[in-house]
UniProtKB/TrEMBL annotation:
Annotated compartments: Endoplasmic reticulum; Golgi apparatus; Lysosome; Secreted
Keyword Lyase: no
Lineage, broadest ranks: Bacteria, Candidatus Eiseniibacteriota
Organism: Eiseniibacteriota bacterium
Origin: domain of life: Bacteria
Protein name: Carboxypeptidase Q
Swiss-Prot/TrEMBL GO biological process terms: proteolysis
GO CC terms, sorted: extracellular region; lysosome
Amino acid sequence: MLAVAAAAAPALAAEPFTPATLDAARSIRERALRDDTGYDLLRSLTTEVGPRLCGTPGDARAVAWALAKLRALGFANVHAEPVKVPHWVRGTPHAEVLAPFAQPMVAVTLGGSVATPDSGIAAEVLPVTSLAELALLPENAVRGKVVYFGGRMARARSGMGYGAAVPVRGRGAGEASKRGALAVMIRSIGTDRDRVGHTGGMRFEKGETPIPAFALSNPDADMLEVQLASGAPVKVRLRDDSYWADSTMSANVVGEIPGRDARGEVIVLGAHLDSWDLGQGAHDDGAGVAIMTAAAKLIGQGTPRPKRTIRVVLFANEEFGLSGARAYAREHAAEAGKIVLGMESDLGAYAPTGVQSRVATELLPVVRAMTDVLAPLGVPLTGNEATGDADVGRLYDLGIPVFDVNTDASEYFDLHHTPNDTFDKIDPAMLRLNTACYATLAYLAAEYDPGFGRAPRPAPAAPAAAPAATPR
Ligand SMILES: [Zn+2]
């Protein structure tokens, strides 16, 4: 009777993992909780390389650093895959209120901004809260003004406030330029009250005249808004000398823990090697680099070797247009069928709050068996709506199943893209906890013989949804 029931049940109803595999996964999890490979890597990256904006000398140093570290840690097939990246050179911003109450403001230049004239731009401020509000204004209201976007980012455990707030950073200047604005200021896309601006990427579309764009620190944005509320015209002076240099070469850096299976299938663990230039890129995304490298290394230290290869991909230039991820997806499209699963760490080394998968619903019992091993860490399966995040999301576009490990991002956007994203902000216990999650999941994915098929496509996005692939 038992035999009949077992034979009649769908294959997936059987235990997806043997007791020995589950034991090995628990052992990897426990070793990860005692292992500081990731923390040591991050200390090294933030100290010996530091800021590594694409196209800069720091970027080239980061590629050399990653190749050397992966080799030193015993990874196989360590190599760089060249990627063309943009090269923008940050200038020195100057921002001040001229009237009604003159005083200086703390601002940072947004990545991709262009210089002002040497004498600067002095003009009246036109406040709006969003791109939608700007779009409702007649052109003669905007022409000759400095447009100020005052929308505030909401603090949230999921980090969801970022997607809602960030469109003005990417497109505020382009949309304002189309209507004749001279420059743009935004309230920083961040949740802190520190007197630092949050930089980030922006882009102009074909036919738009590039104009300078700045992010004010939140306290300076507050002060500006009080002046605007006085009802008197508010006039500011802005100056900057940023410029575009020629595109240059960077690289995706790859290293593998070879699997024992001859099919050549791989699990991709991704993070981005580049960072913004103002801090050390500690949480964003040095932490991801450290977590994924350490996770793969821990799997490689177990016996036997994993069935499938664990491939670490450290992507070039996530921050300024996803150059590395786009190149990787293009150049590896032919082997997409062999990439069984992708995961990415790019939401800071904070407490993991849950795992999302993106697999066919019949496979959810398998995912649940995997996340059950994370139960002692307090990390549950929270849904099947994973996106793979900015870089590995480009693999999801190819139909590759993805898992996301979400973190408590409540504090992440206090320091994101600021000078305060430094190594001292990293809690080694949280780094180990993230490493334990990815290592456990990657190991079990490598062992799950049938694989995860192809990822289901998402339901059609609601019209107001944030654009996909927002760089983090
Ligand atoms: Zn990032």
